[in-house]
Amino acid sequence: MSTTVPAPATSAPPNDGRTISPTELRPVLDVSSGETQVYAVAKRTDLQPGDRMSGPALIVEDGTTTVVTPVFDLTVDAYGNLVLTRR
């Protein structure tokens, strides 16, 4: 007996790599240094494939927050995943 497996859904093509502007700024305490830094804040629902942002940043959504420290860049891949790359 066999079954047919449907092809996976395709993702939306990435945009032209727009840089995200923060919706607000928020002070965040760095526990390792004891210093406060200002982080950009972006809403997860506003991000689209191809978007990018440099840390420090917070990507906020209802269930969690992704912290992008100052040494990382964030991009959104073709499937909508957040990808952090160390500079």
Fraction of residues in H or I helices: under 10%
Number of self-contained structural domains? 1
Based on CA inertia axes, which overall geometry fits?
elongated
Largest sheet: 4 strands, mixed
Give the CA-CA distance, first to last residue. 51 Å
Strand content: 35-45%
* Strand adjacency order, main sheet: 1-2-4-5
Secondary-structure element string: EEEEEEE
Alpha plus pi helix count: 0
Structural classification: mainly beta
Number of strands: 7
User: Uncertain segments of ≥5 residues (pLDDT<50)?
Assistant: none
Mean pLDDT: 88
Write a structural description.
The protein is 0% helix and 43% strand. With 87 residues, the chain is mainly β. The protein has one domain. A four-stranded mixed beta sheet has the order 1-2-4-5, with no helix packed on it. The protein has a three-stranded antiparallel beta sheet with strand order 3-6-7, with no helix packed on it. β4 (57-60) and β5 (65-68) form a beta hairpin. The radius of gyration is 16 Å and the shape is elongated.
Blueprint of the fold:
Blueprint: E1 24-30, E2 35-43, E3 52-54, E4 57-60, E5 65-68, E6 72-76, E7 82-86
Parallel strand pairs: 2-4
Antiparallel strand pairs: 1-2, 3-6, 4-5, 6-7
Can you tag this structure with a few keywords?
four-stranded mixed sheet, three-stranded antiparallel sheet, 87 residues, mainly beta, single chain
